[in-house]
Amino acid sequence: MKLGLLTAPFESTPLLEVADWAAANGYPVLEIACWPRSSGEARRYAGTSHIDVANLSQGEADDLVGELTSRGIEVSGLGYYPNPMHPDLEHRAMTHDHLKAVMRAAALMGVPVVNTFIGNDKDRPYDENFAEMVGVWPDLVRHAADHDVRIAIENCPMIFSADEWPGGHNLMHSPAKWRRVFDALDEVHEGTVGLNLDPSHLVWQMIDYERVVREFGSRIYHAHAKDMEVDRNGLYEHGVLSAGVGWQVPRLPGLGEIHWDRFLAALYQVGYDGAVVVEHEDRRFEGTDEKVKAGFLLARNAVAPFIA
Fold first, then answer.
1. Confidence check: pLDDT of 62 > 60
2. How many CA atoms within 13 Å lie on the side-chain side of 47?
3. 2-306, superfamily in CATH?
4. Which whole-number Å values give the CA distances from 160 to 163, 201, 273, in the listed order?
5. Of 69, 90, 98, 238, which is the most buried if we count CB atoms within 10 A?
6. pLDDT of residue 73
7. In this predicted structure, what is the pLDDT of residue 44?
């Protein structure tokens, strides 16, 4: 395994500057944030566009990979995390077009994985969303397969605030739902869709992350390292029926409730040899590049001892 970082928090720092810093500070792998290049409003931790995938040529892809390789940097995946099942069909079509462009860019760069969400309409019941997914996703799966890339779905429910409640923006957040999605999409192209496993989202759902790794090891195509603090006062005030709103607090590895030795041990046990990428969403270490970097160094020190 190798340790990496997701470039999203470096919104205004050029990619090669991020790569220089990462290579010098114990991060030989990058997951590169690839949102559309626009000036529109974006949610927190979204909107960073370190590659203009819509206009990327093969020559530009080769040059970029060469620049990264010369710095000792590998690319674990290209990341774009929209809601591909958005109820606004015009917005949905935009996310599909860009997601396909990310897949194409991954193929041009020789990057094996595109990381994203499956999506969800927060106001519709699960069975309706699942039926919609069966209609929506085959085209995306075929596009990925045609470009010889795999899709890794992050297991985040995307319920952090009232505007994402009650159903969240990503239906693929628990084992029963993963099995059902895999069964459906394997009929389109077997094995194209897997997990970008982030244990932090399992903690507040009270799902055993070691058991998840043991059961779904062959479907883990990418892994995130993010921690989770459960705010006991917020849980007392709002209860579990708030679906985490008011008491799930994303933290850097080492500052939450995950035992990183156990999580990494489980990954070793199932033979995972991909990247473990720090996803920085800790409000206490943001606001400037220096604070973001300090957070990544703290995360490195928590996870790196278990990476070999």
1. yes
2. 10
3. Divalent-metal-dependent TIM barrel enzymes (3.20.20.150)
4. 8, 11, 31
5. 98
6. 98
7. 73
Task: Tell which residue, 302, 193, 191, has the closest CA to residue 251.
Answer: 302
Write the Ramachandran bin of 252: left for phi over 0, alpha for psi from -120 to 50, otherwise beta: beta
Residue boundaries of the structural domains of the chain = 2-306
**Of the ranges 105-109, 144-148, 165-169, which one carries the lowest mean pLDDT score?**
165-169
Percent of the chain with pLDDT over 70: 98
Contacts of residue 90, Cβ cutoff 8 Å, sequence gap at least 6: none
Kindly state the average pLDDT of the residues 87-110. 98
- What pTM, to 2 d.p., does this model score? 0.96
Given this model, what pLDDT does residue 41 score?
58
